[in-house]
Amino acid sequence: MASQPIVRDESIEIELLEATGRGDRASFRQLYERYAGVLFSTAYQVLTDPAEAEDVLQDVFVQIWDKAKLYDRSRGKPLTWALTLTRNKSIDRLRSARRRHRLKDEVEKETAVNEQRGAGAVHNDNDSVERVCAREKSTIIRNAVLQLSNEQRQAIEMAFFGGLTQNEIAQELDEPLGTVKARIRRGMIRLKDLIEPRL
Q1: What's the pLDDT score for residue 1?
Q2: Distance of CA 8 to CAs 21, 34, 85, 105, Å?
C-alpha cells in the first residue's frame, strides 16, 4: 500500500522540532518521515554517491536530535535549517574525501619518484644517503599521522593540507574555536612525541 504524501505544514514542523528538542522520540520519528527524502536528495546532489548520501543523512539526523533544543523559530523554517545542516555536512564530506585522495596521490607520486631514482643509474653516495633519509622521514611522519585520533588527524589535515585557518576549520566542523585549537595543539604535541625519538 502506497504511503500518503506528506503535506508540508511549517507550524506542525516547528512543533515537532521543538518537541524533539525536549527529547520526544515520536516527534523525532515524524520529522524523519517528513525530511528523510528531501535531505537524502540534497546530500546526493552534492556527493553523487548513494552510500555517502546515506551516511550524511544519518549524521544529519543525529545532529538534529542533538541540536533541536537550540532551534530558534525566529531564525528560519525547520526545513531550511535541516537543509543547511545537510548541505554543510555533504560539503564537509566531499572536501574531506578530496583531501584524502590528494594526500594519497602525493604519497604515491613521492613513492614512485623515489623508486625510479633508486632504480636509475648509479648516484654518488651522498645523494643515495639523502634519498634514503628523506624516504625514511616520510614514512615515519606518515605512520605518526595515522596514529593520531580521527579528530586530531582531520583538524591537522584541514590546516596543513587543506590550507584552512583555525577559524575556518571551526566553522567547517561546527565546533568551538577553542576545541579546534586544542585538538591541533594536542595533535602536534603527539606527532612531536612520536617523530622526534625516531629522527
Answers
A1: 39
A2: 20, 8, 19, 46
Mean pLDDT of 75-90: 89
Measured CA to CA, the distance from residue 88 to residue 82 in angstroms comes to: 10
Residues of the chain with CATH 1.10.1740.10: 10-89
Report domain 121-198's class: mainly alpha
- Tell whether the model's pLDDT for residue 118 goes beyond 60: no
CATH fold of 10-89: Rna Polymerase Sigma Factor; Chain: A (1.10.1740)
CA dihedral 134, 136, 139, 142 (to 10 degrees): -60
pTM: 0.49
For residues 188 and 176, what is the distance between their CA atoms, to the nearest angstrom? 19
